Structure prediction request, 125 residues.
Amino acid sequence: MSPVRRCSRTACGRPAVATLTYVYADSTAVLGPLATYAEPHCYDLCAEHGERLTAPRGWEVVRLADPSAPTRPSGDDLEALANAVREAARPQARGTEGGGRGSRTADPVEVARRGHLRVLRSPDS
Prediction:
């Protein structure tokens, strides 16, 4: 017997990625991430059968998101990334600290710049 659980649909040998459970009292079909253990009253489905799942008339299908699945970035995520890139690209003014031998003397010194790339030189060299 293979350690990989297979889709419960007849003649489908693809690996299971989701578990389907029926809640008869609420007329609901719940499709969620693959259960840890195979249960006798649950059905394991592959990705294709999980996406094409429909429920009987009058029933509701609840699809639970898989927390481990990668999510697509939203518009807010992309805007936040663009703002972070703009902020990083702004030249920062280096303030002089009293006496000139403060904690900032160990910072690298920018020697040249080409686009978004910088050439840094260690202050020791």
Remarks:
- The longest helix spans residues 75-89.
- The chain has a mean pLDDT of 81.
- The longest strand covers residues 18-23.
- The chain is about 15% helix and 25% strand.
